[in-house]
Automatic annotation (TrEMBL):
Location within or outside the cell: Cytoplasm
Enzyme type, top EC level: transferase
Protein name, as recorded: Sulfurtransferase
Enzyme Commission number, as recorded: 2.8.1.-
A family per Pfam: DsrC
Molecular function GO labels: sulfur carrier activity; transferase activity
Organism field: Candidatus Venteria ishoeyi
UniProt record, GO biological process: tRNA wobble position uridine thiolation
Superkingdom: Bacteria
GO cellular component: a single term: cytoplasm
Record's keyword terms, sorted: Cytoplasm, Transferase
UniProt-annotated stretches for the region Disordered: 93-112
TM helices/strands, residue ranges: none
Main location: cytoplasm
Gene from which this protein is expressed: tusE_1
Amino acid sequence: MSYELDGKTIETTANGYLVEPQDWSEGLAEIIAAEEDVALTERHWDLINYLRSEYLENNGNQPNTRNLQKAMKEKWGEKVDAKALYILFPKDPSKQGGRIAGVPESRRKGGY
């Protein structure tokens, strides 16, 4: 699969993750989100930016849903449960959110 943006073809893996994370842009995030039937809001962008920041600035860290809850609780100043994150990204906040955020597919195992 691939995406077309500004005359450039951007390749993805079989699971829809970018082959080259540096190809990511906000415009591409909008395209990927639309393909996944996700209308991006400010809260979506908070989570996307957090996922990107963790990956790019924290040694490739890819937080799971539990850690995303903690981070968004701090960011939004309110209790955040998993359901709130799944409302934003129904196919798994860390996986679907990561795909839209342009980070590689997480290889972490389940559990906490």
